[in-house]
């Protein structure tokens, strides 16, 4: 039996795939190591979404190649989106790599490892449209929260996005399989479940009946007694219906936080990007959500420098942000991805796109400052995430903060706080964009 190390890059969905691979490897009798040094095989589960993600993946491969040359690691196996996207180039450009698995082949991780250990190379690219195969996971997030992947692939075909070419068509998991996994996670200590997919709002539309089943799934998840927070990511605007809004508003366990990727607000740009809806639709939707879900915190992603974005279109985006006051927004410069329709369109240069992203970040910083200022004096439920050794202080998150991507709450407490517990915190300061507070004497 061999020692196997894993490096997982990219999004939460990719992380879940890596956790499934780790489980299969452990079930086969191999040892899943915490690090990579002295491992017989290092698995690098890559992202290939945009150029920066590709560069990060290549950097990790090159780092492992150096360790391999020094005799400090054995074989290198590359999995995930980068291998799917550049399956014909990886062996040529990165000869240190011993094997590659496409996104449709991660279930073959154990045979692939055993082939490498036997001295053979590996190159496996199964169908990216095959149904999801159910398997266990070795959860790599802290014990108190986990991602729950409910579907694979995407049918939206946004003009700038390579994901459908790497992950295939949209495939929903069976609801009972999802619920069984959620129950197991809760029994193992998970208090916060983060529901993810390329598009969670489309869940169920590919199953018999072609219905939007996300509201039903969320209601079933809320019945799991030990779960305290359920958070929903990647809800596409055009798939949000009244049933979903009512479910989020009425179910106490569903945190009033929605990740809605809108990308832009200009009508012409949205049409060119093959996005459904226009600026008027987005404004009406955001207004309806705020009216029907009190206290809602919205996260979105925006792209600057998209094809068709001139000064007027960018000014419209800035005005939209100032008008809508979206609490959480990340802006990214357009990355023309080879193989996508948008890469063939005329678009602003990269420097302009980057400058515009920085301008959006400045606007968003002021919006965040106003949001944080409005929290002063409030007592909020905070999930304790840990203790920072450098600052000698506990920290956690409110319902308005998703792990890794949003802010922290720094907690002053005379007593030690246990990771994964919920405590009432009175907010009394803001520091570097994060909230600060002290444990309140009474529960909320």
Oligomer: single chain
Low-confidence stretches: none
Strand content: 15-25%
User: What's the overall geometry?
Assistant: globular
Instruction: Give me the secondary-structure category.
Output: alpha/beta
The major pleated sheet works out as: 6 strands, parallel
| Number of separate helices | 13
Q: Compute the average pLDDT.
A: 96
Rg, alpha carbons: 22 Å
Q: What is the strand arrangement across the widest sheet? A: 2-1-3-4-5-6
Total count of strands:
19
Helix content: 25-40%
- The CA-CA distance between the termini, in Å, is 52 Å
Question: What does this 3D model show about the protein?
Answer:
The chain is α/β, with parallel strands linked by helices. Helix 8 runs parallel beside helix 9 and helix 12 (311-324) packs parallel to helix 13. A six-stranded parallel sheet has the order 2-1-3-4-5-6, sandwiched between helices. Strands 7-10-11-12-13-14 form a six-stranded parallel sheet. It contains 13 helices and 19 strands. It has helices at residues 12-27, 51-69, 81-85, 90-93, 109-117, 163-167, 175-187, 214-222, 242-250, 267-272, 279-292, 311-324, 350-375, and strands spanning 3-8, 31-32, 41-46, 75-80, 99-101, 122-124, 145-149, 151-152, 171-172, 192-196, 229-232, 254-259, 297-304, 328-333, 379-388, 393-397, 409-412, 422-431, 434-439. The model has no long low-confidence stretch (mean pLDDT 96).
């Amino acid at each position: 039996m061999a020692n196997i190390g894993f490096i997982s890059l990219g999004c939460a969905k990719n992380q879940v795939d890596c956790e499934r691979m780790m489980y299969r490897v452990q079930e086969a009798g191999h040892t899943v190591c915490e690090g990579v040094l002295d491992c017989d095989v290092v698995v690098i589960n890559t992202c290939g979404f945009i150029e920066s993600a590709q560069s990060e993946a290549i950097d990790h491969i090159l780092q492992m190649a150096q360790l391999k040359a020094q005799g400090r690691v054995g074989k290198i196996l590359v999995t995930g989106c980068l291998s799917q996207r550049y399956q014909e180039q990886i062996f040529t450009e990165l000869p240190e790599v011993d094997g590659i698995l496409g996104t449709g082949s991660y279930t073959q991780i154990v045979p692939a490892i055993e082939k490498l250990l036997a001295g053979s190379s590996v190159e496996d690219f199964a169908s990216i449209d095959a149904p999801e195969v159910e398997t266990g996971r070795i959860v790599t997030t802290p014990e108190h929260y986990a991602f729950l992947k409910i579907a694979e692939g995407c049918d939206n075909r946004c003009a700038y996005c390579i994901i459908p070419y790497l992950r295939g068509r949209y495939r929903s998991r069976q609801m009972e399989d999802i619920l069984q996994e959620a129950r197991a996670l809760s029994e193992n200590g998970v208090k916060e479940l983060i529901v993810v997919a390329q598009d969670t709002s489309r869940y169920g539309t590919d199953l018999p009946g072609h219905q939007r089943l996300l509201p039903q799934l969320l209601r079933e998840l809320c019945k799991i007694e030990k779960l305290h927070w359920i958070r929903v990511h990647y809800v596409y605007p055009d798939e949000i219906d009244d049933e979903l809004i009512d479910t989020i508003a009425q179910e106490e366990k569903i945190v009033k936080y929605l990740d809605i990727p809108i990308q832009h607000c200009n009508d012409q740009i949205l049409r060119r990007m093959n996005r459904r809806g226009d600026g008027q639709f987005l404004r009406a939707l955001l207004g309806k959500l705020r009216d029907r879900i009190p206290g809602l915190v919205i996260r979105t992603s925006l792209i600057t420098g998209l094809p068709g974005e001139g000064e007027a279109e960018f000014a419209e985006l800035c005005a939209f942000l100032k008008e809508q006051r979206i609490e959480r927004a990340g802006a990214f410069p357009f990355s023309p991805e080879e193989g996508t329709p948008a890469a063939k369109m005329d678009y602003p240069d990269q420097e302009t796109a980057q400058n515009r992203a920085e301008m959006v970040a400045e606007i968003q910083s002021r919006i965040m400052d106003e949001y944080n200022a409005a929290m002063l004096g409030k007592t909020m439920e905070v999930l304790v995430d840990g203790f920072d050794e450098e600052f000698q202080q506990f920290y956690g998150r409110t319902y308005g903060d998703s792990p890794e991507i949003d802010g922290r709450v720094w907690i002053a407490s005379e007593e030690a706080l246990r990771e994964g517990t919920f405590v009432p915190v009175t907010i009394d300061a803001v520091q570097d964009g994060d909230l600060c507070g002290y444990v309140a004497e009474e529960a909320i």
